[in-house]
Amino acid sequence: MPLSTITQLCTGSRYMTVLVLSGLPIEKIPDAIGDLFNLRHLGLRYTKVKKLPKSVEKLSNLLTLDLYECDIHELPRGIVKLKKLKHLLAEKITDPDWREFHCRGGMRITNGFGNLKNLQTLQALEANGESVKYLGELRQLRSLRLWNVKGIYCARIIESIVQMRYLSTLSVNASDENEVLLLNVCLPNLQKLFLRGRLAEGALDESPLFQAAEGQTLYELALFSSELREDPLPSLSRLSNLTRLEFTRAYNGEQLTFLTGWFPKLKVLQLVDLPNLNRAEIQQGAMASLERLELFKLSSMTEVPTGIEFLLPLQYLGFHEITSDFLTLLCQCSEIQGSQWQHSIRD
Questions:
Q1: pLDDT bracket for residue 282 (50, 70, 90)
Q2: Measured between alpha carbons, how far is 319 from 330 in angstroms, rounded to an integer?
């Protein structure tokens, strides 16, 4: 779509409330965008736009700004004038499979973004010493995703998010594999937690994030590159409301055991790239509600998980990036014969 066409659209439809240009091969947005004083939603995801015009600060009624997977790395200073803004989606994908540590990136936001006091969704912010200072002013946030977090930022992040009493989704991603995420904070309304980075030894037992407090609502937990040495399941089994649990390079031990009665509401379990895991045991009555079991790249596994028959039938059972030897074991395993399962062979 030519820039002139978008300009005509803006000048000829000034009362427009929704403008979605998602997926179009456009690189610029005209200054005329500022004439859309009634605009509530601006969607530019999957475009090639590299910069927003200064006139975007005139969109005083804007509620949603969707820049997901654009080429924009920094927002204009005037963005802080959009005081009605509720949802800011601005994230860049580098690895769609979430395998690489640096699989996503956030947006740099200028000083003063604490003025966006009605913001409910911020995905995602590129953390730095300045940006984390203002997080505490965004007390209406329901969903927050942070990238490039260093350990030295954690204390300030804790001070900020503890003031977000409506926060239900939190994603914190460290700047590299060696940064330790120290998040000892109680978030009573948290429902989804995603942590990418090392966890301190004992964190699962000491941090309030993982405690089964009265009224605890956490139902999705994903741990990436946590470098856990002890079996995390005894600690996490206290979270009886979990419906989804994912470990990706999160555990360095050799065995996982799911005991009877653990994770009664769990529907999805993903175990991904646990290089030392060679044995998994599932006792009868564990994960009684499980619907999907997905095992990826468990290179040290030499036997089919013991007790897997107690989970059957499942809506989905997948063994991915396995060796041909492990495929032979699956084909010979009487416990899963008659069940449908998917597989892929490691390259």
A1: very high
A2: 9
